[in-house]
């Protein structure tokens, strides 16, 4: 029940989906600017692919956490209820962050 690869993949996909909008804001906030920043919108046509990939991977992680029964030998870390609660807490924290990144284009105009 290792969730790390799925969560990392969904995080990478969400970052790819929001790269065209969040990256210029972060760079401007850091004091970097220039005409070259307009080239960061080159990934905009691929945004729907990244969004679907992110949501699909989050769905897979959710299914592994909530649908599949935990198959563990007694005495292993995965048999501990606290470990499962911690995994679920981390999942929801990552999912909330990713959803904020995915919806950024809708409220980006508030920052520019």
Kindly list the characteristics that best describe this protein.
about 110 residues; 4 helices
Could you please describe the fold and organization of this structure?
This protein is an all-alpha fold and 112 residues long. It has one domain. Helix content is 64%, strand content 0%. It contains 4 helices and no strands. The termini are far apart. The relative contact order is 0.19.
Summarize the structure.
The chain has 112 residues and is an all-alpha fold. Helices cover 64% and strands 0% of the residues. The chain has one domain (4-110).
Helix/strand layout:
Elements: H1 4-29, H2 47-66, H3 81-102, H4 104-107
Helix pairs in contact: 1-2, 1-3, 2-3
Number of helices: 4
Tally of DSSP β-strands? 0
For the terminal residues, how far apart are their CA atoms?
Answer: 42 Å
Structural class: mainly alpha
């Amino acid at each position: 029940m290792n969730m790390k690869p799925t969560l990392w993949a969904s995080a990478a996909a969400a970052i790819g989906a929001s790269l065209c909008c969040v990256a210029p804001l972060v760079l401007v906030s850091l004091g970097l600017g220039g005409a070259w920043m307009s080239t960061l919108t080159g990934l905009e046509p691929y945004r729907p692919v990244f969004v679907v990939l992110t949501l699909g991977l989050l769905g897979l992680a959710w299914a592994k956490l909530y649908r599949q029964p935990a198959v563990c030998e007694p005495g292993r870390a995965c048999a501990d209820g606290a470990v499962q609660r911690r995994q679920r807490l981390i999942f929801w924290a990552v999912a909330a962050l990713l959803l904020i990144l995915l919806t950024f284009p809708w409220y980006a105009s508030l920052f520019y």
